[in-house]
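Annotators were shown the component list below and the corresponding predicted structure, then asked to write short factual statements about the assembly.
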Amino acid sequence: MFHEIRTLRQSDWPTIWPILRATFAAGDTYTFPPDISESETHKAWVETPRASFVVCDESGAILGTYFIKPNQPGLGDHVCNCGYVVAPQAQGRGLAAAMCEHSQRIALELGFRAMQFNFVVATNERAVRLWERLGFAVVGRLPGAFRHQTLGFVDALVMFKTLAPADAGSGSDSVFGNGA
Amino acid sequence: MFHEIRTLRQSDWPTIWPILRATFAAGDTYTFPPDISESETHKAWVETPRASFVVCDESGAILGTYFIKPNQPGLGDHVCNCGYVVAPQAQGRGLAAAMCEHSQRIALELGFRAMQFNFVVATNERAVRLWERLGFAVVGRLPGAFRHQTLGFVDALVMFKTLAPADAGSGSDSVFGNGA
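Structure shown to annotators:
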């Protein structure tokens, strides 16, 4: 299926917000409060991240979105974190995989060395399988850390992928020069 | 050794800031940028957390400080996160253990069910042993996620302790009523 991934524009927000609102309201994949406000969502998805993107079909219709940001400040900011959402009517077409692969390229361009998902809900088996297929490993399990809106307390997984080995040569403009 | 743990007051800040600045500047335990500003530190240690405390000796001198906050928003906010710092001249006296035990009581009072440390630097073996002795388990390992200022890229550990079982009866005022 044809799709294009491009930088999110402010004019995309009226289209993205209902997609995010519906996803978070379901309360089965993200920790955002199910009744999160539009301004809080905009802050988390657009203002705080380093960059945000949308995936569109051939007509330009937005089918999904993702953000990328440092997972920690300071001495942990060589590891990035991303969040992906696909519109309900566009699921099953490989768009989450396409966005994740795109985000890994963007991560390297931005100077990140690895990508971490802090909170993959363990019952979201489709997501876990997808991230594993794309090279992520489960490196942690948080017992009962998610209050699933229909299943109650369920585990969350920490998943991690190294994108650039720590001993790889880095560009002369790299700020991560203390390889050991 | 006598000590008292009490709520942090604004008037404590001029004493706390140099302790935090020296700790973060060392770049061997926290991800905060080694050159973090005073206002950023105040935001992270005092403004953002749910509560902050200090530990004092019998003369009232401040020897350490910690904060407690939800580790995730919304559907993950039943798990808290804490950060502890002991002044260099007061280390080895059991103050980190005292603050951690205090924080576990406070956590239950505040309605949290578990405590998570997202980023225990693996080379900080004294801390890892201490948290294990206090009931925390290593539930994850993040490869090369910390840029240690003298050792280079080292692993970080995710540590977790359940404080209240998910199936335990909760108070009638609990907001975490969806036990399953």
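Statements collected:
1. Chain A touches chain B at residues 24, 27, 30-34, 36, 72-79, 113-114, 116, 118-119, 139-149, 151-153, 156, 158, 160, 162, 166, 176, 178-180 (CB under 8 Å).
2. The CA atoms of residues 78 and 112 of chain A lie 5 Å apart.
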